[in-house]
Amino acid sequence: MSEVLSVLLYGLVQAAVLLLVALGFSVTFGLSGIPNFAHGGVYILSGFVCWYLLRKLGWPHLLAAAGGVAVAAVVGVLLYWLVIRPVRRLVLAEVIATFAAGVAMLELFRWMGLVTYEFNLPPVVAGSVTLGELAVDAHRLAVVAAAAGLGLLLWWFGRATRTGLALRAMAQEEYTALSLGIREDFMATVSVALGSALAAVAAVLVLPLGLISINLGYDAMLVALALTVVGGTERTAGLVLAALLLGVATVAASVVLGPHWSEVIYLAAIVAVLAVRPSGILGRLKELEERV
Amino acid sequence: MTERVDAVLSVERVSKRFGGVQALQGVDLEVRRGEAVGVIGPNGSGKTTLVNVITGFVSPDRGRVLFRGVDVTGLPVDVRVNLGMARSFQTPRPFYRLPASRNLVIPLCSSRARERLGTGWGRREEVALDLLEEVGFERDAPAVAKPAAELPHGYLKRLELARCLALDPEVLLLDELFSGMSPAETASLIPLLTRLRDEGRSLVLVEHRLAELFQVVDRVVVLDFGRKIAEGRPAEVMASEEVRRAYLGQEVAGLA
Amino acid sequence: MRTAPAGYRRERLDRGIKVRSEDVFVLAGWGELLYRAGPRLAATVLLLVFPLLRPWTGEYWQTVFLVALAMMLAAVSWAFLENVGLVSLGHSLFFGAGGYLTALVALELRAPALVAVLVGSLAGSLTCALLLAPVLRLRGVYFSLVTFALPLLFSRIIEATKILGGTEGIVGVPGLGSLAARQYLLVAALLAAVFGLQRLLDSDYGLVLHAIRDNDVGVRASGIAVGRWKLAAIAVGSLPTSLAGGVLATHYHVVGMSAFALDYSVLPLTAAVLGGPGTMAGAAVGAALLVPVSELLRAFGTLRVVAYCALLVAALVAVPEGLFSLARRRYYQFERWVPV
Questions:
Q1: Is C183 among the domain residues?
Q2: Contact (CB, 8 A) for C325 and C310
Q3: Terminal CA-to-CA distance of chain C, rounded, Å?
Q4: How many other C-beta atoms are found inside a 10 Å radius of the C-beta of residue B209?
Q5: What pLDDT digit, counting tens, does each position of B132-182 carry?
Q6: Which class is domain B1-84+169-256?
Q7: Gap between the Cα atoms of C96 and C250, Å rounded
Q8: Does C54 fall in a domain?
Q9: Do A274 and C138 touch (CB under 8 A)?
């Protein structure tokens, strides 16, 4: 019994991790239709920035984290103005451009040798908590709390505020949104900056669970893609559900089958969802409606 | 005389909801061979959604669409087109980079066009020019060779019509064909539309320009807020209290 | 980009010799003939002759030539798919599929190397087409998402579950004749791909493919089964890349997870964008430039990838039509200022 509970609990933690990591990409993509393939790069970049501020400059943890988030937001703005906006008129050029930017960032870090064990971030909250028979680190619980909080915040933001509605309208029909007098560049900048900031928040929370490893940047993209495909981009609820399903499934798989089966789960989930319900498990837009 | 068998297009109790808006509610429509039906109603009454449902761009929540007796609800757009439906878009969607004649190459590559218009290798350019002439492009005019992006609105609308004709349709659904056209341009298209109807094709025309519409159609259907509120001959329908109220608003109708 | 002086605008005119060599007039004289056929002829001759220059270039550069040919095929394949609106961020998927299936056909079915390569490549591109089929009904972005994810996922699955030879890969793949034989096989494939795919894109079918990229709703409303056309495009378009993967597998005698590496995705992409995504020849030229440069910069390790990416973004922003189209325009046209 305690094993099942343990799987559920760690599955929940994993779901929170997945949600946090994917949130930035999903927000940018869902709000303004920009697929920011540099998301993984920004994720790792903010991890390194936070590390630098914390370990090298001796800033207090919270301040270092804030610094990471701020830098990420600025990088997001730069990404939009220097990389995305100049190529927006070409079909799918923003995909190629952000992909290139992301890979450039990650491989630059690799070339600079930022791959040793000294690159790690400390947990946000120290100590552990006992729940019944299980002991969990306080940090992991903080991760779950943060994911829940952010998820809720974004759901509210997306629905309730005018900007949120405007941005959603834009993602669904750029032509009509423009005619509503919304300034496209401003909205797009905000969505990319916001997505990048969320990537930084995720980095500060998730990277302490291991080392700041370059490959985690590519992982972050994989997770973001898996959740975007499985959960659909229309509703935050879809993303959360996808995170829960994949989180528990991957933990269960690694307990029952072996540690590396999580990738197989991602693949199976992506393929299955695309074949059966292409707009995601909770997506309501079907097929052509997504494009008309 | 209105036997089921004659109905080439049959829409049965179709409903569609978009988020908070009920775009269509239990709408029925029957179109017979060689009949021209007008679909009118104030803005937002669901006319375009109806066309989208019939042609497959939107799948209805309830109800079905029958084409020549076959249930086509759920079939993809291109399959319905190859069965004999063709629709024009309210806002023209030409292939902007291509000149008008090359625009038509795409529909002429469909299996229906290949069968019915014989557009095998090499004949496409010829057939395209013929079609353009039918809708009012002059054969050697510069308009034929200019990229579609440079064509004025009226020409784009005619190009849309030509695209439909390139599919040799049995049912033509035209979404606000006349909108944005000058009276002269509209007048020039009316003989074409009546000829298409007389050839045995069926027309469904969504329109706001009622005077011109009534010259082509035998029957009119009125939608308001997704519901069919009237159906019949143009004169009868326009005399109806409910229709006037829908178009003019509650208070004004009482004064009329 | 120079802007016009006040009161003037830029005008582009065809060069005299181009006009003189249009249509049947190209037969007017040697000058005209060479002008038109020259570039193509020169490139083809270079490709055919290079393997024969072995005594002068040495073994190393001949191998680089082979790899360059493989990358040129991949770049052409990438560019073709891009013309249909399918931007692949994981072209190594097709490369690895071709490599693995060639190895399997050669070793499991005991087929002779040439048969293995041909069958394996075909199987590779068909498998990838089927894998990607579900994503074709969605927006183009999803194709990019999934092509990005698949090679990453495959290499990790291979590493984790040890299938297909695991981290060591499938060893003992038989060789395919001599180096020169492999080179000529790829040269033939390249010439076929460049000229064949370009003809396809210039034909009426190419018109439909481009329309699918620009306005797929309009194409559906014109009765074209977009999904099937895209599927066919992937099957045909990915074939050059799978073939390259298959031939390189016979060259190295091994195929492993590295076939799905990022390098094989980034390089064709950069080459095609740099050279010009609109044309098949442009993509090939881009790769022909990048591969030797990449070899020369081998010492810089992964910094090369950083450089490609920076180059890629620069190319997208500054020269969106690609170097090849730029060069071709200069070749055929000249510019001057005319008063407005």
A1: yes
A2: no
A3: 19
A4: 16
A5: 999 988 877 887 888 888 899 989 999 999 999 999 999 999 999 998 888
A6: alpha beta
A7: 13
A8: yes
A9: yes
The answer to whether residue C1 is domain-embedded is no
Give how far A114 is from chain B: nearest CA, Å. 48
Any idea which residue has 């993984």 for tokens? A40
pLDDT at B5 over 60: no
Which tokens in the block code for residue B155? 């020409």
Say yes or no for a CB contact (<8 Å) between B57 and A286.
no
pLDDT single digits (tens) A208-231: 888 888 888 998 988 888 888 888
In this structure, is residue C3 part of a structural domain?
no
DSSP assignment string, B144-198: GTSBGGGS-HHHHHHHHHHHHHTT--SEEEEESTTTT--HHHHHHHHHHHHHHHH
Going by DSSP bridges, is the β-strand pair B219-224/B36-40 parallel, antiparallel, or unpaired?
parallel
Which ipTM value was assigned to this complex? Answer: 0.87
- C-alpha to C-alpha distance for C37 and C34, rounded to whole angstroms: 5
Note the pLDDT tens digit of each residue in A83-112: 888 887 666 788 889 999 999 999 999 988
φ/ψ of residue A205, rounded to 5: -85, -40
Q: If you count residue pairs, one on A and one on C, with CB atoms under 8 Å apart, how many are there?
A: 139
CA pair distance B26, B14, nearest whole angstrom: 5
Task: Retrieve residue C244's tokens.
Answer: 């390259």
What values do phi and psi take at B180, rounded to 5? 85, 0
B51 contact A CB<8A: no
Where do you find CATH 3.40.50.300 in chain B?
1-84+169-256
- Using only C-alpha atoms, what is the Rg of chain A? 19
- Residue A15 has which token pair? 């779901």
**Average pLDDT value for chain C:** 87
Alpha carbons B213 and B176: distance in angstroms, whole number: 10
Tell me which residue range forms the domain holding C139: 8-339
DSSP state of C5: P
Instruction: Out of A263, A275, A287, name the one closest to residue C160 (CB).
Output: A263
CATH code: domain of residue C265: 1.10.3470
How many domains are contained in chain C? 1
Instruction: Judge: B110–C223 Cβ closer than 8 Å, yes or no.
Output: yes
